[in-house]
Amino acid sequence: MAFELHPRLSQDCFELGSLKLCRLLLMNDSQYPWFVLVPQHEGVREIYELSELDQFELMRESSRLSRAMVRLFNPDKLNIAALGNIVPQLHLHHIARFVTDPAWPAPVWGKLPSQPYLEPRRRAVIEALKGELAQAVEWVER
Amino acid sequence: MAFELHPRLSQDCFELGSLKLCRLLLMNDSQYPWFVLVPQHEGVREIYELSELDQFELMRESSRLSRAMVRLFNPDKLNIAALGNIVPQLHLHHIARFVTDPAWPAPVWGKLPSQPYLEPRRRAVIEALKGELAQAVEWVER
Fold first, then answer.
1. What's the fold here for domain A12-134?
2. Probe site for chain A from B77, B87, B101, B111 (most A CB atoms < 10 A)
């Protein structure tokens, strides 16, 4: 079955494009730099359900995204998580956290109402992240 | 520098043993089956700081633990996360979640005061998990 992004992720996020394994999304909450990787396999809910090669590719894409986020935002900590209690489609959150952010040191989920991006900041964040990632990943047309 | 488990993890968890890369812990909160993998490298805070081989080994140990937890507890969802806002030493949470658990569908962190295990349940959970993992992993003496 062809992969389709879960409607809740489509609604809450902006799509940046496709890497070898994952769709890359920006969560529409300007309080934290918050990106999401979604392995493009229909029906997968847990990391261990991916093939071992895809698990390694997920790790590779996650670490490349992490390094790009660190270079770009210089956070105090990264939070990386596969939860999925509400959206069962496997997705891996990557959130740049700061001791000065409004939820610190709590996890961000369910803590504060999201604050949607305004232009031109949304575009700037997306272009900057894509620029940082450019040398590390291959974008896949779909 | 030799690896030492962060004192907060020592205090909050029971140590089950060492796998090839990670120390395996049981969080002392009987509300959820909750295990933690801690890569045994001193000074590492983020997954991307591990070598690529160790990242793959972390993924391997995480998936083996995940499968053992699913066989043993039959959860509705796994929550897997590297947060570290309070304890900076890299550690990967693995939590078996149920639609009937007291925090569902919220993440567990900071939601409810922990409920320490009583014997004989603590021993039973540890022995059962070790039994499920036995075929999949190699324990390392230290």
1. HIT family, subunit A (3.30.428)
2. B77
